[in-house]
Amino acid sequence: MYIPDDGIRLNAALTRPEDVDRCPLVIILHGFTGHMEERHITALAQAVNEIGFAALRVDLYGHGHSDGQFENHTLYKWLTNALTVIDYARALPFVTDLYLCGHSQGGLTAMLAAAMKRDTLRGLIALSPACMIPELARRGELLGLRFDPDHVPDRLATWDRRLLDGNYARVAQTIHVEEAIDRYDGPALIVHGDADGAVPPRYAIEAAGRYKNCRLALIPGDSHCYENHLDQMLSAVTDWLQAQG
To answer: How far, in Å, CA of 211 to CA of 183, rounded?
Structure first.
């Protein structure tokens, strides 16, 4: 299925628990260079289905099978995608409550969107959120590159040699995660592996401490995408969801 967003199509998949007419729904956003068919994304969708929640997985701009070129994606584009998907999910007739979940850059996107849609969402889940992207962009240390933050190059190379337009960094420089955290007053869950080599766990700890109502689940010895203890990430999310009543 596709969700239209300002002239582009967002590839999406909706799964529902069996024999349930109405239920809550969890929107699940992937991370930078990721897509909705990654192991940790599909496993999470299945896990929430098993406890009676629907799951809506989405490929964001320039990723997976959605429209747009990877090199042209920015956090602004992902944020407007997220807002569109929230509106789409909210209008589904079977949905009772709405939860927003994102991994890595998708986790950062979810945090930003939750601040804007706090009156619509029942809860926020951030998995290994890449909260440091705006800070690194302002310092000129993004994607393992060093550049003059006041003179961003026209092209940036990622670790796998894919190119990004310099507007990716320019957009990121304008975002202040702390303001988004302060605006959101609903329940939140942050899950992070303490052996994450992509996003240092301290960012999750700091964000959890700043939120008004947040549970932090640190998974010992786990990585950015939960290759070592996927079951613990799934349990942290499903236990928290069930506790929301």
So the answer is: 9
Strand partners, 54: 25
Give tens-digit pLDDT for 31-63. Answer: 999 999 999 999 999 999 999 999 999 999 999
| Per-residue tokens: 26 | 């969890």
Would you put residue 13 in left (φ > 0), alpha (ψ -120 to 50) or beta? beta
Burial of 69 (0-12, 13-18, 19+ CB in 10 A): exposed
Separation between Cα atoms, residue 171 and residue 51, nearest integer Å: 38
Structure tokens at 127: 């998995």
**161 has pLDDT over 90:** no
Beta-carbon contacts of 212 under 8 Å, excluding residues fewer than 6 positions away, are 184, 185
What tokens appear for 175 in the block? 């975002």
pLDDT digits (tens, 9 = 90+) for 89-139: 999 999 999 999 999 999 999 999 999 999 999 999 999 999 999 999 999
Q: Judging by DSSP bridges, how do beta strands 8-15 and 54-58 pair with one another?
A: antiparallel
Residue pair 87/119 in contact (Cβ under 8 Å)? The answer is no
Contact 108, 82 (CB under 8 A): no
Separation of CA 13 from chain center: 16
C-alpha 58/C-alpha 157 separation (Å) is: 25
Judge whether 236 and 217 are in contact, CB under 8 Å.
yes
User: Domains of the chain by range and CATH?
Assistant: 2-243 (3.40.50.1820)
Check if the beta carbon of residue 240 is closer than 8 Å to that of residue 125.
yes
Please choose, from the candidates 13, 242, 31, 2, the residue with its C-alpha nearest in 3D space to the C-alpha of residue 122. 242
